[in-house]
Amino acid sequence: MKNENGFILPIVAILAFLFAAILIYQVELLESDRRFLKERQNYFLHDTLLQRASLEMLSILEKSDTIEKVAGQLTFEGGSVIYKVTEEHQNETVILLTSTTDLPGKREIFLVYDKETKRISEWSEGIQ
Fold this sequence. Notes:
Layout: H1 8-63, E1 70-76, E2 79-87, E3 92-101, E4 106-114, E5 119-127
Antiparallel strand pairs: 1-2, 2-3, 3-4, 4-5
């Protein structure tokens, strides 16, 4: 055997450090991807809740002739939507829908419903 004067120990330490650094980096990437996926799922859940609530509000508005200031809550699978209805003009009704889920964050949309055409004339979104 040759006298290597401790040549192997520094190489093993450097390789172990590099392996640990790569492992930590990959774990951080995995956690980042998990957070991103959870945020996207939450976003799509809010989107689905608001679409379902807007369709339900449209059916309610089409069936009734007069709407006074109304507030309530629609509960769906995955979350709920709080609505507030105010009548601004004879032909328009403004609706505020706010969706909430178990995850943090809320999403709001403002709808302007035209009674003559029985359609949504304006749609504005906001994220909180």
